[in-house]
Every structure is written in C-alpha cells, then in structure tokens.
Write a structure and sequence with these properties.
about 150 residues, alpha/beta, Rossmann fold, four-stranded parallel beta sheet, three-stranded antiparallel beta sheet, about 35% helix
C-alpha cells in the first residue's frame, strides 16, 4: 500500500517510513496538489484535515487519522491496514522514502566517522539522497519505541 500524508502528519510519515511503508510527504503542499499527487501516484491520503476530505477529488481516497499523538496515529494505521510493523523495519530512507540498498563499506568510507568504519561491516544507502545508514543504538531505541507503542 502506498500513502501520501498531509502536512499535519510529518511525524507519522517518518514513523511509517521507519516500519517500511511507502509514504510520500511534503512539508509545504496545498490540498489540491496533494490530492493530485495521490491520484497520479496511486496513493491513499492520510489526513487530519476535515476540509481536505470534503474535496470532490479526494472522495473515497483518504483515511482520516483521528488522534493528535503520533504513537496513537501509528497504531491506528497499522491496525487499519494490517501492517506488520517489524517486517520491513528500516528498509526505507526516512528523509526521502526511497528503498535502501546494501553498499560495500569501502564505497562509503569517506562519509563515515572513523569509529563507525572500523567497528561495523554492514551499511545501507539511499540512492536518492545518498544518506548512509548503519546498525547502531538508534535501532535499539526504535525497536523499544515500537514495542512500547504496540504493547497495548
């Protein structure tokens, strides 16, 4: 499933990307352009905007997110669309939504802190924005946050 989140849902979009969902998100986009992109790209609109859902072109192509808290929003989306939040964990760039690719550490050596290069062997990169990812303590914190969110 492909989503596009309105500008009220930036934190939700980030966390959906963290769990591997394809989510387009633009900080500054008007409703007409958002609806147009959703239609062009075959994306379901995630929104909290009651005016947006009244637009004729948005009819039948939106999901209304009911909570203000991103953790509750994430729970709502995962439940509604039967998403396994751990299946595709950390497979997308959280900045630009592109799928990550494995990359040889020698190709990214100049981009890494020396300690990271010396101690880790596994790296992934975003072919769109060139951001480099590696397993570190942030992954553990993400997993703990997800466990906390989906515990109840």
């Amino acid at each position: 499933m492909k989503f596009i989140a309105d500008n009220m849902l930036g934190r939700l979009a980030k966390w959906l990307r963290i769990i591997g969902c394809d989510v387009a998100y633009y900080r500054r986009i008007d409703d007409a352009r958002l609806v147009g992109l959703a239609l062009e790209q075959g994306r379901l609109i995630l929104t909290r905007d009651t005016l947006l859902i009244r637009r004729k072109m948005a009819k039948g192509n939106f999901f209304f997110v009911t909570d203000d808290d991103y953790k509750e929003q994430l729970k709502q989306i995962v439940k509604q669309f039967s998403i396994d939040p751990y299946q595709d964990l950390l497979t997308r760039c959280i900045e630009c939504n592109t799928l990550l690719s494995d990359i040889d550490r020698e190709h990214v050596r100049e981009l890494l802190p020396e300690y990271v290069y010396e101690n880790l062997r596994s790296f992934r990169t975003c072919r769109q924005c060139n951001k480099v990812y590696w397993p570190a303590t942030h992954k553990d914190r993400i997993i703990e946050t997800l466990k906390e969110i989906f515990r109840s």
